[in-house]
Task: inverse folding
């Protein structure tokens, strides 16, 4: 059984644990750097990216996360996770890790009253956006795997997948199954 | 596209889990809270301890201060309205705050009825002291709950009581045979369908945070250990001697609540906590947790 870690510093990690169980993985709550290398896969969940950045920095998790991504094992970054994984972040500008060659704008659909549910273009994949970021630029080596109203909402570059929506909060398990199943 | 569904409302509550929501009284404090790692701020003109000291009617904040904070931080901004005051709530919704707290900390506007919260696009959080109150609020449309504790006292004893009461009752429901649940719903004063759901799932249908009296990282960790999914800190940060360090420490304690060695490091050298109030010194009419029906 694959052991897949979910970074559990703050935010929507609990729903990812349930999704991983649904696709037959053993989920692991990750809070310490020394847990990371032993995993078969990793998820950076939603939540507040500013909070995640501070805790990753303060508790020295960054080198182990970078090493895990470089090892080629599958990594899923949702919402705030996508913001951390991007090359550049705007609205406002903030640090990020550059695992995905995309630029994102935070909270770009508006405040919470504008959060919404929809389906991906030409597909029945459910999309739940919560104060979601928008992917503003996609690099040449990045594949767009889902769109909404023409805009990219899920992207893949090598072993790293980034989604601006929350696949863990809808019952559809295809995103988790494709990466970790 | 369907905006502001109940799933989207509860979704934001899910994203706030494991984070700290801090009361802030101005832009400067909001920036300190964000820099310390708060997952959201609650914009209000007076923290509960100051409301207690000043007395008088406590109302929703001036839109100008809420807008100023929204302009300066990127994290969610919440604001409080009075219990039952759906026009204050409409104004807060028009300001596009990210969550409305229908709060016992402000002076109630209605002594019989809470706001019908399904009618709003913005999600609501409400206080509770027991399971019946929690399920009534969810029945009205709350997307998140917080145990009330006793706000503005710096004393965790009531928060502990409310967490133990709610979670004890949930455990009791999970052991009940189905035929007892209707009478239990009657006794709780709670919607039957929600009682059945809690009995089946062993947890509340929406996230529950702790509030009221959290003054130290250890207080926050205690609430997490008692089943809270995160904490609201009101007076405890900005009435302490070193708000920046204390805010940071409480954020860290909520993440590492299961690691006493880390908690010991986190709790070191934070300066003076806010002065607290012993419950015996509060008159019955001074207890805010009794507000709510």
Result:
């Amino acid at each position: 059984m694959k052991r897949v870690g979910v970074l559990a510093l703050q935010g929507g990690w609990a729903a990812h644990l349930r999704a991983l169980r649904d696709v037959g993985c053993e989920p692991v709550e990750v809070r310490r750097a020394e847990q990371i290398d032993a995993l078969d896969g990793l998820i950076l969940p939603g939540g507040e990216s500013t909070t995640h950045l501070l805790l990753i920095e303060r508790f020295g998790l960054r080198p182990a996360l970078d090493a895990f991504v470089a090892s080629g094992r599958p990594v899923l970054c949702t919402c705030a996770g996508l913001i951390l994984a991007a090359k550049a972040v705007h609205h406002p500008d903030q640090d990020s890790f550059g695992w995905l060659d995309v630029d994102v704008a935070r909270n770009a659909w508006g405040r919470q009253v504008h959060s919404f549910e929809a389906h991906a273009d030409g597909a029945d994949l459910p999309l739940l956006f919560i104060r979601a970021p928008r992917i503003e630029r996609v690099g040449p080596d990045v594949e767009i795997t889902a769109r909404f109203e023409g805009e990219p909402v899920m992207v893949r570059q090598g072993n790293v997948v980034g989604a601006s929506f929350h696949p863990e909060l809808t019952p559809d398990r295809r995103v988790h199954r494709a990466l970790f199943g | 596209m369907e905006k502001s569904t109940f799933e989207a409302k509860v979704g934001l509550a899910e994203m706030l889990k494991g984070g700290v929501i801090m009361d802030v009284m101005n832009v400067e404090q909001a920036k300190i809270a964000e820099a310390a790692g708060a997952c959201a701020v609650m914009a209000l003109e007076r923290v509960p301890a100051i409301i207690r000291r000043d007395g008088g009617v406590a109302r929703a904040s001036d839109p100008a201060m809420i807008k100023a904070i929204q302009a300066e931080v990127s994290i969610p901004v919440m604001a409080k309205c009075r219990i039952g005051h759906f026009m204050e709530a409409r104004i807060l919704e028009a300001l596009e705050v990210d969550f409305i707290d229908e709060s016992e900390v402000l002076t109630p506007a209605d002594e019989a009825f809470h706001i019908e919260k399904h009618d709003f696009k913005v999600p609501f959080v409400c206080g509770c002291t027991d399971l019946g109150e929690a399920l009534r609020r969810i029945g009205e449309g709350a997307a998140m709950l917080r145990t009330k504790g006793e706000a503005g006292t710096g004393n965790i004893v009531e928060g502990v009581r409310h967490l133990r009461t709610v979670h004890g009752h949930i455990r009791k429901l999970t052991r009940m045979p189905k035929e007892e649940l209707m009478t239990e719903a009657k006794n709780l004063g709670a919607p039957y369908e929600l009682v059945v759901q809690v009995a089946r799932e062993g947890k509340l249908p929406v996230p529950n945070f702790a509030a009221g009296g959290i003054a130290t990282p250890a207080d926050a960790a205690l609430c997490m250990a008692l089943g809270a999914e995160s904490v609201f800190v009101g007076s405890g940060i900005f009435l302490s001697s070193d708000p920046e360090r204390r805010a940071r420490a409480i954020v860290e304690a909520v993440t590492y609540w299961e690691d006493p060695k880390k908690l010991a490091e986190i709790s070191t050298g934070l300066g003076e906590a806010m002065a607290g109030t012993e419950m015996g010194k509060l008159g019955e009419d001074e207890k805010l947790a009794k507000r709510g029906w």
